[in-house]
Amino acid sequence: MRDAGGCRALQAGSLGPLKGRFWAAAAAKEQNYEYGSARYLLLCGLGGMLSCGLTHTAVVPLDLVKCRMQVDPAKYKGIVSGFGVTVRDDGLRGLARGWAPTFLGYSLQGLFKFGLYEVFKMRYAELLGPEKAYRWRTGLYLAASAGAEFFADVALAPMEAVKVRIQTQPGFPGTLRAAAPRMYREEGPWAFYKGVAPLWLRGIPYTMMRFACFERTVEALYQHVVPKPQSQCTKAEQLAVTFVAGYIAGVFCAVVSHPADSVVSVLNKEKGSSALGVLQRLGFAGVWKGLFARIIMIGTLTALQWFIYDSVKVYFKLPRPPVAQAPKSPKKQK
Description:
There is one protein chain. The protein is an all-alpha fold. It has a single domain, classed as Mitochondrial carrier domain (Mitochondrial carrier fold). It contains 13 helices and no strands. α6 (137-168) crosses α7. The longest helix is centred in the last third of the chain and has 35 residues, at 235-269. The radius of gyration is 21 Å and the shape is globular. 53% of the residues are buried. Residues 1-30 have low confidence and may be disordered.
């Protein structure tokens, strides 16, 4: 059971009537929605909204401390001490600063990230054909996820800018309804989009690693770790595989995207700053501040997001095809 019905059923070169939609065949009995239909894609987008919006909101305290470690390492020297300083200065309620823009921003990001990943993956697979789609499946995952994240970050950028400003700038309004209008008055629309390029630098490699690593990790787990075929696993067992693969993918994602994440945090805090200027000022060591906190946060987030996303697909009985297998050649099919 994998998130997107990804190239898990790349063996379906024999599914002529589906015209390249070879992932849906193995789940035909459970399918209540046609694979690739507008309803199917909207429900995948809904799963993405829930998975990203809920999980990012749940870890707002850790994200807050991580951001403050990046922009003020002298005061916030570590995770534990960072929590202590935050509670001492702002009280327990201070740990929830920025929850509203986090929920809204990452819900929108999840809608585009997962929904468009499904769209691009299906279209690229149809263009390539079954054999090439299987042979080049890692590249297909990378290309589809990169395109999806490009649009997802445009949707995220305004709320991410507000969130970082609320969490890291002393004396700034602590609510979305007060912070967003002030940013607009003082800096105009650019205040909400000046961080979009660093978001791409952070988000596109992160998402490419996240989707490709997850897809291939699930393949490896079923081939080498799980003691029985996927078709014989219960839904609970398949969701457990999803969670483990998601956590493994999340660790790699955190490392790949952390330098850009540090730049985004500082950039959105400071007026008139540029991504290149922030990068030069932070230096090599500075961009890795808060990495351990980010590994914990992103590993947990990624695992939970895949779990929630797959659970939504289970609930709505969407197609959940098997792991990727080589399609049969025309000669063997004869």
